[in-house]
Design goal:
The chain is 61% helix and 0% strand. The protein has 148 residues and is mostly helical. It has one domain. Helix 3 crosses helix 5. The termini are far apart. The relative contact order is 0.14.
Amino acid sequence: MAELIEAESGDGVNWSAVDAIVDGGGAGDGEQATEAGGAPRMTPGQELAGLLQALAQIIKPVMPTVAAIYTPETCAGIGAGIDPVCQKYGWLQGGFQWGAELQAAIVVVPIVIATADAIQRDVSALRAAKAAREAAQEPRASDEPAES
């Protein structure tokens, strides 16, 4: 199962797993369904593992230590552990129904994070420049006339 989660593009995300989630992959009734081309469709656990890996990559720029927890192996293990529960209760049997939203989040969230980081750096730079300007305008103790 780990091979389904391995990064194919070098960025830590198995895009074929994300595509399967977005396209509504997933087997029902405990059987391995197939795509139109005969390739096996992902199980709910495999889909969940791919989703976790994609989410880990989304949060990686902001929380790298948390993202480091969700390695492909960890995500595959979570998926393997949750798959029997999904099968038993019929969860996610039709695939993730919010794949379009997930795909949008994969694209938009990193941009929002980068924008927020850039704004924070700009505000910090402005505050530092203001503090430096105010410090330069304050009279120094050596500039004050000595009292006799």
